[in-house]
């Protein structure tokens, strides 16, 4: 089908852009020997897992459902980390995952023996207590009192006997200089233990596919750690895999006037782009400007009853009218995986834009998808 025929609202993943990102990531893996995993938390569009699996080493998960999806749909290396596992799920996790990462020595003592019994590689998440970001406090695992990872103070070298890997995840949308600084702190604190490991996982938050990212600095970091400690380095980016590789196509339903104009769309910030409210940020919109930049400024908002369901203020070359289509950019990551049916909002369809310009619908949703969760 043609782009104009897509039903709205609809997420559309751009295959040529996705492939562009995957080529960049595969280049890093090929040149350094590191392994790169898809962090499914950011992007779980499993119809594309066979394609992603052609470029990456496998998946990482935050729990049983993601682990099962990765095993069923990609079927390559399957890692898992969770702040706390459930006893009734742990046997299934051991069946699905090659690498199992624990958040504390208490979890290691509780579940480690079962994982080792099944021949799984066991790791520990550490918290180097070194923040390299201020912008996104809710995405900072090194914030004071963080529950994510073992601090040096709580580290138990006496329990490391069967631990093969260390894992850290402290970055969010950052360049490689922040990784470099983090590694220096980690080596200072945990260096003696790194020598005893088989692998080190650098987590996610590496904005590798962003224009201007310093890939050569990242590769230097990977080589340094691999050579100094004789370990396998893993990266598990989420964002970088589908960064700027998808759209959310929406239609203007109505214009409300109250001082300023507000266009009510058939998509909702609260339901379909929750990071816009959570982070918060103003998503890029095709053929638009900053408020006041072009001749017609308009607020874009969702059709829910939440007063704050506002996407942002934009300007256009013409007055918006009901029936018109708008295209939000960079809507592949942290969108589909986070959407919800609050207020009975319909979930956006899921489609791909093929390299030849054709669109293909993967999935559409309706009333049953709202009802089944209640
Ligand atoms: C969220 C997360 C990732 C992926 O982070 P991005 O910012 O999407 O690259 C990787 N590892 C862990 C443990 C995470 O929590």
From TrEMBL:
Q: Which UniProt keywords apply?
A: Decarboxylase, Lyase, Pyridoxal phosphate, Spermidine biosynthesis
**Is the keyword Magnesium assigned to this protein?**
no
Pinpoint the Orn/DAP/Arg decarboxylase 2 C-terminal domain residues: 11-331
Q: Among the record's GO biological process terms, what is one?
A: nor-spermidine biosynthetic process
Q: Which Pfam families match?
A: Orn_DAP_Arg_deC
Lyase keyword on record:
yes
Q: Which cofactor does it need?
A: pyridoxal 5'-phosphate
Q: Which domain of life is it from?
A: Bacteria
Residues annotated as binding substrate: 239, 275
InterPro entries registered for this protein in UniProt: Ala_racemase/Decarboxylase_C, De-COase2_C, Nsp_de-COase, PLP-binding_barrel
Q: State the Gene Ontology terms under molecular function.
A: diaminopimelate decarboxylase activity
- Name by which UniProt lists this protein: Carboxynorspermidine decarboxylase
